[in-house]
UniProtKB/TrEMBL annotation:
This is Inositol 2-dehydrogenase. Keywords: Oxidoreductase. Pfam families: GFO_IDH_MocA, GFO_IDH_MocA_C3. GO terms for biological process: NADPH regeneration. PROSITE patterns: PROKAR_LIPOPROTEIN (PS51257). Residues 133-259 form the GFO/IDH/MocA-like oxidoreductase domain. Residues 4-120 form the Gfo/Idh/MocA-like oxidoreductase N-terminal domain. InterPro entries: Gfo/Idh/MocA-like_OxRdtase_N, GFO_IDH_MocA-like_dom, Myo_inos_IolG, NAD(P)-bd_dom_sf. Signal peptide: none annotated. It comes from the Bacteria. It comes from Oceanobacillus zhaokaii. The gene is iolG.
Amino acid sequence: MSSIRLGIVGLGRLGKIHAMNIAKHIPGATLTAACSIVEEELEFATNKLGVEETYLTYEEMVNSPNLDAVCIVSPSGFHTEQIRLAMEKGLHVFCEKPIGLEIADIEKTIEIIESHPDQVFQLGFMRRYDESYQYAKEMVDSGELGELTVIRCYGIDPSSGLESFVKFAGASNSGGLFADMSIHDIDLVRWFSNKEVKRVWAIGKNAAYPELDEVNELETGAAMMQLEDKTIAILVAGRNAVHGYHVETELIGTKGMLRIAAVPEKNLVSVFNEHGVVRPTSQHFPERFQEAFMNEMKEFISCIKEKRQPEVSAFDGLQGTKVAIALQQSIDTNQIVELHNQEVSYGF
């Protein structure tokens, strides 16, 4: 099969990562088109990546006869509509998380996806493609940790980005801390345990920027979740890690435990200087998950060529969003929230 021709929508920080990977690092893929409402981003695609077709609207781009697939990296609120339109145009779809923000809209989108079984759909839960997480998953699946009892996840962005987020929060809706950030950790909990979340309780605090209270956003949040087999999951999400980008996962089982990135090390270098012995740490997500972003896109291209579906499905996106919504409801109501099949309810 010849090279897969992709169009990308959204060329912000994450969009640029996917665009550069497709253009320069993914065998069997060609970045043919780019869509953005920002002229400078289209100039970047043309001048830096050699993209031949640029568009100001997504509808125009998916009508191009020169595309086999699209990569959706637009704001979250556009994802479901853009997925549906691409599917109806006969295109394969890679979409960044979350799949959507409203349950009914996601379910409608899944119906469209399932009505096109010959087209590949993949959701961007890139941590599943990180070498360390895959190693841990193999240990869990082989029974080396025994039965899982506790899963603890930290996902904290560097404090260097907090001030800009405060400005963003005053003008836009991020979907909330848990939908915006913990969605990856929610997916990891489901992935490692092979179980669904049944009950959640979430709390939060704004310390560095109390003004986030006024726009119903959180600087730091924590949650306790009970899975359907009573496994415990603990989430900590935040936007104020002074030392850098902190993503850490701990798995505790009846036969042992493991930690992934307990220290978010940048590399294997130790610096000995007037500050003592220092281990450099990752400062942002493109640095920490560089290989994972490339691996997930390689998998997307392989699935198209091999005519198979990836492990990460639209259903995974639906379940993750359900949990994120329940966590936000728990924050808003200060109550435990129960997840029963398709609905959520309150309980004590």
